[in-house]
From TrEMBL:
Range covered out of full length: 252 to 474 of 474
Keywords of this entry: ATP-binding, Kinase, Nucleotide-binding, Phosphoprotein, Transferase, Two-component regulatory system
Domain Histidine kinase: 20-223
Any one GO MF annotation of this record: phosphorelay sensor kinase activity
Native source organism of the sequence: Robertmurraya siralis
Domain of life: Bacteria
Name assigned to this protein: histidine kinase
Length: 223
């Protein structure tokens, strides 16, 4: 495996700006969506363009939702969180997607009742993003391993997949907003997750080979 990632300062600032803009755009988009619905019901034979407009609006909403996670540190709600329960909640959320893709999920949390200080929604988003990528990397099925270990004052969570890995030309561009190799990707998951980890004083390491990818996230424990 080759080590790939470093967190940059400039990206943090850019992310917060993006989150602010996303927040501002959300309300007008909601209004547009509502009025579009009203116009549609007024039509006797609604044009097929309506569904195109609606699905494009939906895509804008997905992007806004992802960007809004890059909130200012002052907007975060830090709590004492039990890390294994956060991971278990995320796995419940992702279970159906894994099943649909013939992915066997192995959970190996070698600790219980370890706490960290964090914003629950943001931390969930981090794990959702990595698990989603892992599932998407294995279109023909495979094994997804979620492992948790405690080492001293730190807790480390690994997300390991058996996908095709991140090729060099792709890993060079990870961290570039909107860079995606997927037809329906947003290219925001990696950058958003990295930013949240940084905000939580955590560390991120990405290892990848043609045999698969291993994401390691480390957070300081909180007593
Ligand atoms: P998206 O998933 O919307 O494409 P991300 O920021 O989550 O955006 O990921 C960016 C790109 O990084 C992906 O398009 C993919 O090429 C690559 N990538 C991320 N995680 C993995 C993984 N586990 N295995 C292989 N490639 C990955
Ligand atoms: Mg993704």
């Amino acid at each position: 495996y080759k080590k790939l990632t470093k967190i940059s300062e400039k990206q943090a600032v850019a992310g917060q700006l993006a989150a602010g803009i996303a927040h501002e755009i959300r309300n007008p988009i909601t209004a547009i969506k509502g009025f579009l619905k009203l116009i549609r019901v007024e039509q006797e034979k609604p044009s097929s363009y309506f569904s195109i407009i609606e699905s494009e609006i939906e895509r804008i909403e997905v992007i806004l939702r992802e960007l809004m996670v890059l909130a200012k540190p002052s907007d975060l709600k830090y709590e004492r969180l039990c890390i294994d329960s956060v991971i278990k909640k995320v796995l419940t959320l992702m279970e159906s997607q894994a099943l649909l893709n013939s992915i066997e999920v192995e959970q190996n949390l070698l600790f219980s009742n370890i706490h960290i200080s964090g914003d629950e929604n943001q931390l969930k988003q981090v794990f959702v993003n990595y698990i989603k990528n892992a599932i998407e990397a294995m279109p023909h099925g495979g094994k997804l391993l979620i492992e948790g270990i405690q080492c001293g004052e730190k807790v480390c969570i690994r997300i390991v997949d058996e996908g095709g890995g991140i090729p060099p030309e792709v890993h060079a561009r990870i961290g570039e907003p909107f860079f995606t190799t997927k037809e329906n990707g947003t290219g925001l998951g990696m950058i958003v997750s990295r930013q949240i980890i940084k905000e939580h004083k955590g560390n991120l390491h990405i290892f990848s080979s043609s045999e698969g990818t291993r994401i390691e996230v480390t957070f300081p424990c909180y007593h």
